[in-house]
Here is the input.
Amino acid sequence: MTGDHDPPRSIKVVSTAPFIVRGPTETVKLGNLTIPKGVHLTLLIGLLHYDPKIWGEDAKEFKPQRFSEGVSNATNIQSSFVPFSSGPRVCIGQNFAMIEAKIALAMILKSFSFELSPSYLHAPFSVVTLTPQFAASITWALKLLNWLWFKPRKLEKFLREQGPNGNPYRPFLGVLEDFVSHENRITTTNQTNSFIWFGPWPRLNVADPELIKEILNKPDVFQKPLPETGKILAGGILFLEGEKWAKHRKIINPAFHLEKLKNMAPAIGVSCSNMVEKLKAMVSSSNEDWCEIDIWPYLEDLTGDVISRTAFGSNHEEGSKIFQLQREKAKLTLQLLQLSFIPDGGQNTINFVNESALFPKSAFIKGFIMILFRRYLPTKTNRKVKATANELHSLLRGIIDKRLKAMERGEAIPADDLLGILLESNSKSNQEHGNKNAGMSIEDVIEECKLFYFAGSETTSSLLVWTMVLLCQHPEWQTQAREEVMRVFGNSEPCFEGLNQLKTVTMILQEVLRLYPPTPLIVRGSTETVKLGNLTIPRGVHLTLLIGLLHNDPEIWGNDAKDFKPQRFSEGVSNATKIQSSFIPFSSGPRICIGQNFAMIEAKIALAMILKSFSFELSPSYLHAPSSMLTLQPQFGAPMILRSLE
Ligand code: HEM
Here is the structure.
């Protein structure tokens, strides 16, 4: 639009053609009519040009001489000749078109005389020139159709021809039901050769250790599908890819080096000892020497508190507030998903092959729809999620700004917490590249801090709770672990140096990670068509890496695969199975969990402190219901009877 005047605000273009269409953006008066928004007006240029009232009785005749005195004298009604439209949006190319037409005509006239062939049929018809807007709508409609129907059908055919089986594709809620009933039963006997539907994407199950290894070793080819859905809960490195991921990973890595973690061990100890003190107070306030407590919320609080302390050190108070807000936000968001398992009937170990737990489909579908519209519907929960997210963001920004200002003033910033190490590593990266924007932006740092809570607290509390449950179910291992802790630490507080000597505790934690991996499955999608084993995987197929199933496979772990036997790790992880890379609770390859050492140190300190202070057994009210939403959690908590030992 290069006219001297802007088009009238109340009329907007709908399309251009031999006729022109307009639609008012608000109710307007037009002559005697009131035209509300939503009514389209077809401006019939053709009819106008043939109108005898305007052009005379010979309106339909070819009489160029009517223009002999110029356009303005050709009719008595001005603006009746609008082949190029009129007003501010008059055709910008009218002169171009006239020049071109004149040159072409002049050359033809110079070279030829011409007459109509007898075969000529006079049949002018109008081909609508699509406006970009119109074209875009059609393109989008076709894309949508392709996405929802043609592509899934093509992928399905492609997969079936190669062997894998699954339910036929049924768009919309049909495929959701498929997802619900299959994914969550973690299902069927022939896992690896089957797929389920997740929306229009087929998800192929993979539980072969070699294939899983191959997938995880090629993070550029096998990336996280739908990172946007993950970002609803957290941002940061977990959902980054390519160069940005590599940059963040390099900057964050130093924060998780062992010598840094060693410095964080005392802070972890403080959080653990605070929790133990609270539990002791509960026991001593009861009339007996024991007390029934649901240990799950205590462990959730513990791992959040540990991140608050280790991430923000001196700003621990603000860190705790951040944790509360983060948890509130995650809970509100998960409320929208409302997913849950029905208990599996009190089995001793979760059985990933024959798991009969089911999601209530209606709750799932309702939750899924709600999350889809989460950003658009101003529901009470949505508004609360947004307000919480804003508060969280400004708190984090406040802490980071304070630290950055201190750095600018040349003050020594605390470099023994995750945030300090992150900022230090970031500023090193800026210096190395001689560019103050080479590292992460403040927004990036904020996202990474939020991710520490998300990735680090639910996972570690999951490990701790299942460890306690299994130690209740196998009291002989509880006794052995306690004896070891007492041998190593005696009456002193557990410290970093002693953790390496906790062989039995380590074996127990590993066996729990095998049977109850906090992240029982991870998903990838290929960025291009690739060979994977005997299969060709086109882009658009998702791959579900069934860590839980892999950890329970009798062919890998033996016939006692489902039993709790920490002794299988007595010679270390590499000797626990014949097939290497079959134990991957922290994933593997370049994107292996950055916090695995952190998690193990935290779990050992916490467990050592609990074992020193209490003996524990399951309460009769305990219901064994491992439920996997994002991490494996006890759906009905973990009520236990704690007896004080000190
Ligand atoms: C028992 C505890 C934990 C388990 C079982 C666990 C498991 C995992 C797994 C399976 C992944 C890979 C996810 C994927 O690629 O889709 C992962 C990634 C990650 N974990 Fe952990 N995690 C634990 C604790 C932690 C802790 C304590 C932190 C930090 C404080 C942490 C931070 C991360 C981060 C940042 C990533 C993303 C790494 C990347 O993409 O490069 N995790 N974790």
